[in-house]
Amino acid sequence: MKVKLMCVIEGKAKLLVPDLTFYRRTNGIAEPSYAPIFYNSKMSFSRDVSILVLKTFKKFLNLNLNVCDALAGTGVRGIRYALESSPSRLWLNDANPLAVNLINKNLSLNNLSSISTVSCLDARMMFLKNSYGTLRFNVIDIDPFGSPIKYVETAVRALKDGGLLSLTATDIPALFGKYPITCLRRYGAKPLKSSFAHEIAIRILLGSVVRRVASLDFACKPVLSYFHNHFLRLHLILNKDISKANDSVKKLGWLLYCKNCSYREIRAGIDVSPPRKCPNCSGRLSLAGPLWCGNLFDKVFIRDMLSFMSTVELVNPGDVRSLLEIVYNELDGPPTFYVIDELSRNLSVSSPSPSKVVSSLKSIGFFASRTHFHPKGIRTNASIKIIYDVIRSSI
To answer: Could you tell me if 191 and 174 are in contact, meaning their C-beta atoms sit under 8 angstroms apart?
Structure first.
């Protein structure tokens, strides 16, 4: 099969990619998934962030990196990794023979063939073939169309102790609670429809990963977990240590939520006996989980990512900086966030600006910040009663 190609520049990479004008849906809309080889230019934001993560991780590890892009498509992510972060070894894999042919062309186009290995395998088989001795990777990136969870356990076997595992999930409807049975089947967790479903989704995904890697005696440390447009992205450092793995499992728990007044509570641990009524309004509490109750970000890691921004060639530098700066401000806050418009509707009042509410909460001694998860969201340790009082006084 002959694929219609075009040449694009992304960061430092020069690439041949499918020309989407030849691959349209019946309604005329160009769709990356309709092309014989997958390439989505809109995911350049994710690749920008990943390059900064890799550069920061390399600084922490202080080693030459052995990097694997397990679902490589055109090879764009791995090639940009190589051009910006200079790994000593690059392994690109895709089960699609057409993609593998294009990957080899793109590696040659960017003079990276000498440090690269290309395979045409199911990613899980490729991981198993690299699951011992010096063959293991320092960095594994899994960027599927849909859920990454089926690849996690074999990926961990191919990851060196202290390695970086990066995962993308695009099955947003299941994680957001539209298809709860699908979420239970894939992730072993009960989701919840809510205004802050973005964060619940991240925590369910992360909780599922933690359980799987802990079964192999690995502890999980999130350095950056975020939501952007239509996808979730996790960057995790894994350490093989039974004691630390146990500590990771202890950070799993449940979310209690009252849809009537927006009260919510996180309860970590195995023994959870949730109350039946909301302590704020006596409404019925809903339950979500098990999910990750710990931190989603690492402060030092995010700070170093910001410091590396001037050293890389990003496609979306303004958007990336905005994400990292908001994340840096919110990372000391508690789990979950509040959407100001929802709380204002509950009070039947006009909605004040989130920035004004944040400033008011800070002025009376509470932690408060904006959140990257939602443009009208705030993260705070103030009680729901105090937040309501602040909103009333901010009108």
So the answer is: yes
Please identify, in words, the CATH class of the domain defined by 337-393.
alpha beta
Paired sense of beta strands 116-119 and 89-93, if any = parallel
The residues, ordered by sequence, that sit 6+ positions from 369 with a Cβ below 8 Å of its Cβ are 326, 329, 330, 333, 358, 378, 379, 380
Give the type of residue at 45. Answer: F
First to last CA, the chain: 63
Rounded to two decimals, what is the model's pTM? 0.95
Each of the 395 residues of the chain gets a pLDDT tens digit; together they read 788 899 999 999 999 999 888 887 667 677 777 888 998 999 999 999 999 999 999 988 877 899 999 999 999 999 999 999 888 899 999 999 999 999 999 999 999 999 999 999 999 999 999 999 899 999 999 999 999 999 999 999 999 999 999 999 999 999 999 999 999 999 999 999 999 999 999 999 999 999 999 999 999 999 999 999 999 999 999 999 999 999 999 999 999 999 999 999 999 987 767 777 999 999 999 999 999 999 999 999 999 999 999 999 999 999 999 999 999 999 999 999 999 999 999 999 999 999 999 999 999 999 999 999 999 999 999 999 999 999 999 87
DSSP labels, 227-287: EETTEEEEEEEEEE-HHHHHHHHHTEEEEEEETTT--EEEEESS-----SB-TTT-PBEEE
Q: Which tokens go with 287?
A: 């339950």
Tokens at 93, concatenated: 């894999």
Q: Provide CB contacts within 8 A for 108, sequence distance 6+.
A: none
Span(s) in the chain for CATH 3.40.50.150: 5-292
Domain with CATH 3.30.56.70 in the chain: 337-393
What's the topology of domain 5-292?
Rossmann fold (3.40.50)
Contacts of residues 272-279 at CB distance under 8 Å and 24 or more positions apart, as own/partner, are none
| 8 Å CB contact between 225 and 234 | yes
